[in-house]
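Appendix B. Raw example, untouched.
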Amino acid sequence: MADIRFTRRSSLAKLGGLVVAAAGGRALVPDGALGGNKAVESGAVSCVLTPELTEGPYYIAGEKVRRDIRDGHPGALLTLSLRILNAATCAPIKGAAVDIWHADAAGNYSGFGAGAGNRTFLRGVQRTDAHGLATFKTIYPGWYQGRAVHIHVKVHVGGYVVHTGQLFFADAQTAAVYKAAPYSSRPGPDMLNAADSIFVNGGRRSILAVKKASSGYVGSISLGVH
């Protein structure tokens, strides 16, 4: 797919009206979602509220609509699948715009810091398919001072921002990934999940289910929205 800029000005035309219009929505995650999507697929799901988590200082409007957001950056391949569900019915939502952004293996964000300029690595937008899935190819995030390892996510549905949050990883999973290059060239993270103020205020329900794949890792979670 060719890269398409996702901007507040052009999103109505390019993403069918899925544009930032309001904040403060709440998102839900189905019970069982932390272990994958089997419970969702079987219909044996109850949706429970999960707190909104801060957008953080590194959000940039104008991300590209694309599946592969790596831009050649080194790191363990992470295929990230996010399922967006209707909170009332747990039915999948087709056509939601899902924004993600995160740090590279060295803990840097594109667009910030010396030499970052207008670079857009590890940022992107995908629309959900008929199954409510948005899938990205990225890398396992690096850590930076004062935060547990995480990925930022923002979901747009029907002209509104319906969820702003952060996705986390089990500490043991991160420790295993960080044994290999390029992560092993740095000390380990200076903060684990339990010490992260954002994680303890809602992040426990936003831990990705991660498994080893033939190439890299696969991470998944389901989020219900209003």
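End of appendix B.
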